[in-house]
Design a protein that fits this description.
The complex is a heterodimer of chains A (321) and B (364).
Chain A: H1 3-32, H2 40-58, H3 61-85, H4 90-113, E1 130-131, H5 145-153, E2 156-157, H6 158-176, H7 178-188, H8 190-195, H9 200-226, H10 238-248, H11 253-272, E3 276-278, E4 281-283, H12 285-300
Antiparallel strand pairs in A: 1-2, 3-4
Chain B: H1 8-12, H2 14-33, H3 38-50, H4 53-78, H5 86-103, H6 109-138, H7 142-164, H8 187-193, H9 207-224, H10 226-236, H11 238-243, H12 248-275, H13 286-296, H14 301-324, H15 331-345, H16 347-363
The chains are: A mainly alpha (321), B mainly alpha (364).
């Protein structure tokens, strides 16, 4: 593997990790507040469709992004309604959201564009433009720094950098603000938060809404940045990979960055090479695809450090208890 | 709102029926919004699914799949274990069926059926055993592990079909056709013995009878055996069950074995009964529909049977819709989602008004 290939793989790692990073942080914030969300996949999928459809119709990708965030937040609020207001089962609600998105995107896409559940290809302003970082071209031929800066870091859509920025923002929000403190508290011990006179419902709804915004950005990037248009089921399990990354990161923002880069790298390598030879042992592409899931199971089983979710996660808060 | 406010009969009939009606109303609005007639669509679906023995045949074929996966989810639910791994367990079950049918020469379909059922159940149960073990022994969350195992199963099957079972020279990632001696008798052949005419086209086969038998077996196991009692007690209250000397580890593992085995059995119907070979997407989402079926059927085998027939109708009716109108098949995924949402997650939203109605009537 020469340097050129390495740069290409890392460059596509950046791109593939971006939707995972958004979704992973989305799940992290929701679960820190005590609301399990296995509907990341569905929200991302609905947002991906909305972004592509509205970008195509309006000709402006940013209108599409706003619409994507809107639909994703709406779905997040359905999840909130079910799991916070009506104290329903959070996991079942998440499953329902996933199916709702899988079905409704195809039904509407087919009706709207008549292309078998996909949107027309996006071009021009309907796609996310690539941004060259300052001095990228000037530094291009400098050894070491050149390939890293020009080849890997520069030349991505704006949302890639937004996603990276979301990591310190999430960290700051969670660990350095009053809102973050309360949000974490509501995921560990909602009764204490309630006793302190802070609304558990409002906090959890806030967290779920933020989760919706981030999933919306993930989906929008997927259909207008990473590819040029929506196709049926295009999230292809990324919501679950993000969930896996979240567990891998043990619900911590900076670790999440590491985890999504690992999973993005695995995906990039699996895309680039069909079969990998490791010391004469042939590793099939399917093994690479399954690796994130296997790693998650291993982590969950506690074989590589314990992954302990927020204590009050998964349960609705009932005041009378 | 406490559960006791509603009579039991209303809890098992009125609440799920209201949820289904709500799901249908919202789907109707969706159909109307995309410019088709909801009434016409419903008529087309009912005629397509129940209007002929051809339609019935497909409806019952799909229902057979959903009975197996619905029972799988329901049994786990009885122990408060949310097994979303039905899809993966059925995929691996299909591998069991394929290995039995391909590598052992069978003189007669009946022997092949018994062996393939065993293969399917053992493979499905084995695939469910790992998440079950991890939940029981290491405390990893069964929902997340079963989801992960769905993906791992898909990758595993992809590998096996591309690199191991694929026929020489074929590009198609699928196993060779099973020998014709393993073909299961179809429903028209069975009914033909009694002189009842039935369409020869649909793939509905003898697995339907196995599915019905499984409904009975699961009912018997849950309500007439010591293990069933332990499972239900464990589901009601884990600490109480433990205090009564029921081992959580043992129950979790048993339940997941039974659940996985039932999900795996689904492959007998689809892989052996219909395709007669193993293909990449042999399960076609039936593992997930099992969740909706179990929720609607209130985790009771009879309810699962009825809900499975309803979803069989939706599947077959949905196919007719896609054939004759501009409404894609995915509409049934929307209906499925709404059923899961209303019966599973928004249960209280449906139940509280019904409970109020009963409270009003009681006060009068």
């Amino acid at each position: 593997m020469d340097l050129m290939v390495l740069v290409q793989v890392l460059d596509s790692t950046m791109r593939l990790a971006t939707p995972l990073l958004f979704a992973c942080l989305a799940g992290l914030i929701s679960e820190r507040a005590g609301v399990f969300d296995i509907g990341l996949e569905g929200k991302m999928l609905a947002a991906a469709f909305m972004a592509a459809a509205i970008s195509y119709v309006s000709g402006n990708v940013w209108i599409g992004v706003v619409a994507a965030v809107g639909v994703s937040v709406a779905m997040a609020l359905i999840h909130g309604l079910a799991s916070i207001t009506f104290r329903g089962n959070q996991l079942i609600s998440g499953v329902a959201i996933n199916f709702l998105a899988a079905g409704i995107t195809v039904v509407i896409a087919q009706n709207w564009f008549r292309q078998g559940g996909r949107t027309p290809s996006l071009s021009g302003d309907a796609r996310m433009a690539r941004i060259d970082l300052p001095f990228a071209n000037a530094l291009r031929d400098v050894p070491v720094i050149g390939p890293i800066y020009h080849g890997i870091l520069s030349g991505h859509a704006l949302l890639v950098y937004v996603a990276l920025l979301c990591v310190p923002l999430t960290w700051y929000m969670l660990f350095r603000t009053r809102f973050g403190l309360r949000l974490r508290a509501v995921g560990e011990n909602p009764a204490a938060v309630d006793t302190a006179g802070v609304s558990v419902v409002a906090l959890r709804c806030g967290a779920v809404a933020i989760c919706g915004v981030l999933c919306g950005l993930a989906g929008a990037y997927l259909s207008t940045g990473l590819s040029a248009g929506f196709v049926k089921d295009m999230t292809a399990g990324r919501g679950f990979i993000a969930l896996a990354a979240m567990i891998f990161a043990k619900w911590r923002p900076w670790h999440a960055l590491g985890a999504v880069f690992l999973f993005g790298l695995l995906e990039a390598v699996a895309n680039r090479f069909q079969n990998i030879d490791i010391f004469g042992f042939n590793l099939p592409v399917q093994a690479m695809q399954a690796l994130p899931y296997i790693l998650t199971v291993v982590i969950l089983a506690g074989f590589v450090g314990r992954a302990i979710p927020p204590r009050a996660g998964g349960a609705a808060y009932v005041k009378e208890h | 709102m406490s559960r006791g406010r509603i009579p039991h009969w209303a809890d098992v009939t009125l609440v799920p029926l209201t949820s289904v009606v709500l799901a249908f109303i919202i789907s109707g609005i969706l159909i109307w919004a995309i410019g088709e007639s909801p009434w016409g669509a419903l008529k087309l679906m009912v005629e397509g699914a129940f209007g002929s023995s051809y339609g019935w045949g497909y409806t019952l074929y799909y229902a057979t799949n959903f009975i197996f996966t619905g029972l799988a989810v329901a049994v786990a639910f009885q122990a408060r274990l949310f097994n979303i791994g039905g899809e993966g367990q059925a995929l691996v079950g299909g591998l069991g069926v394929a290995l039995v049918c391909l590598y052992i020469p069978w003189p007669h379909w009946s022997l092949a059926l018994i062996a393939a059922s065993l293969g399917a159940a053992v493979f499905g149960a084995g695939w469910a055993l790992i998440p079950g073990y991890l939940q029981a022994r290491r405390g990893s969350h069964i929902v997340i592990t079963t989801i992960m195992f769905n993906f791992i199963a898909a990758s595993l099957l992809g590998y096996v079909l591309v690199n191991v079972l694929r026929q020489q020279g074929s590009q198609d990632p699928s196993s060779p056709r099973f020998p014709s001696d393993t073909a299961l008798p179809k429903l028209h052949e069975i009914l033909g013995v009694f002189g009842i005419p039935f369409s020869t086209v649909p793939p509905v086969n003898i697995s339907l009878l196995i599915a019905v038998a499984m409904c009975f077996a699961v009912w018997f196991m849950l309500w007439r055996t010591r293990l069933g009692y332990q499972i239900r007690a464990f589901g009601e209250s884990e600490p109480a069950a433990e205090y009564a000397g029921i081992s959580p580890v043992r129950i979790t593992i048993y339940v997941m074995l039974i659940s996985g085995g039932l999900a795996g059995l689904m492959a007998v119907n689809s892989v052996m009964g219909e395709q007669q070979r193993l293909v990449l997407n042999a399960v076609e989402g039936a593992g997930f529909i099992g969740i909706a079926v179990a929720l609607m059927g209130r985790n009771h085998p009879l309810g699962v049977f009825l809900a499975a027939v309803l979803f069989g109708f939706l599947y077959q009716g949905g196919a007719e819709l896609a054939l004759w109108t501009g409404i894609p098949r995915e509409l049934i995924v929307v209906i499925q989602a709404l059923v899961i949402l209303f019966t599973g997650a928004l249960d209280n939203m449906v139940r509280i008004p019904i409970a109020r109605l009963f409270a009003l009537r009681g006060a009068r």
